[in-house]
Design a protein that fits this description.
The structure is a single chain. The protein has helices at residues 30-39, 45-74, 82-106, 116-149. By secondary structure, the protein is an all-alpha fold. The protein folds into two domains: 1-41, no CATH class; 45-149, no CATH class. 16% of the residues are buried.
Length: 154
């Protein structure tokens, strides 16, 4: 863990963590914090890896959504049984959920609100959820394709 203390750019007083202004002289620090933490420090590689994984899974989910949704609607898939219709539509819902979860990994609430250490914890937790949702989506997607291929009159 870093023990480096932040200092006020105006009076050089030691700042409390996540301070928005200097308690000594009252200088507003929001833009100074941005310069200090985001411009002078590089984003840790682990956060970049999390973003890369989330972007990859988001891209796959978007491509599958487009392909599968197009196949259902262009192919004019008719489901005689309501359960089959539910099975056909469920992957679309889960793919949208996967995309939304991937976006939540990419945009955890702002780099100014959290330290890099906090972001690692937040993104790691959200990425775990993304993997779970992606796995469930893959299973349901496979079941839906199986039901489609084995439907009566195919």
């Amino acid at each position: 863990m870093s023990t480096q203390m932040a200092h006020c750019p105006n009076c050089d007083a030691v700042l409390m963590q996540n301070a928005l202004f200097c308690a000594q002289c009252g200088t507003t620090l929001s833009t100074e914090r941005l310069k200090q933490e985001l411009i002078t420090k590089s984003i840790p590689d682990v956060l970049k890896y999390y973003d890369t994984i989330a972007q990859f899974l988001e891209g796959i989910a978007a491509a599958l959504f487009t392909f599968y949704g197009g196949a259902i609607f262009v192919g004019k898939v008719a489901a005689g049984v309501p359960f089959n219709a539910f099975i056909y539509i469920l992957p679309l819902f889960l793919l949208l959920l996967t995309i939304g979860t991937a976006i939540s990994v990419l945009y955890p609430g702002g780099y100014l609100k959290h330290t890099f250490e906090e972001l690692v914890v937040i993104k790691d937790k959200r990425l775990s959820y993304l993997w779970i949702i992606s796995g469930i989506t893959g299973i349901v997607f496979a079941i839906a394709v199986f039901v489609y291929l084995t439907r009566a009159g195919a």
